[in-house]
Amino acid sequence: MKPKDHYDNHLGNFYSWMVGNFEEKQKEQENFFAEQSLAVKNYKIAFDLGAGHGLQSISLAHLGYDVRAVDFSKQLLDELNIRKEHLNIKTINDDILSFLKRTSEKAELIVCMGDTLTHLESIGALADLVTEISKHLEPDGHVILSFRDLTQALIDEQRFILVQSDDSKILTCFLEYFPDYVMVHDVLHERQNGKWTQKVSAYPKLRVNQDMISKMLQENNIEFVKSEVIHRMIYLTGKRIS
Prior knowledge:
Elements: H1 3-9, H2 15-19, H3 22-35, E1 45-49, H4 55-62, E2 66-71, H5 74-84, E3 89-93, H6 96-102, E4 107-112, H7 123-136, E5 137-147, E6 160-165, E7 169-177, E8 181-192, E9 195-206, H8 210-218, E10 222-230, E11 233-240
């Protein structure tokens, strides 16, 4: 199943619950951006690629950016539209690569966070995305990417991961490894009318690492600034060379 279909038919229905308390997670993201010292300059547009239900978009808007929030899930963008209230956020229901190829706008900051990068269909598509990001960054503009390094395969029972649970729902992931991608099986057990039901859907995630993405950035005139690991996710920051 393609990632969009997986979100439309399965994960989008409980994505917000899976992520956890929105206010808490959103404040974490806002603090992260504030610590990067990326003060808004004259050209204040920011692209949030794979915006989801708005953790990054709302954080960037609070910091003064005029945000373009792009996601293929209308369901998650509808949640963002409710949350954004008066903030300068424009939601765009589109594939992130298609959006970049169509838009003529440039941005001071482009972020692509969560596991969005790994949702692309191939390493070639990822390379195309980095090229488009470079084209749409203002000189000295910044890009922030986050992703999970899936190149090291988990084995045996390690492949079963408890993601989230409460009295009515339990979400477990099972990971199946292939040379270029990992098949992620999202298994949701949900208690309804006193009985437990099981819903399962699977989709592929690319196996990428920091060296691979850093090389793509450098090949597109984006210099490496720094990287850090937060909650087992790699956060990589780059700057567009003038």
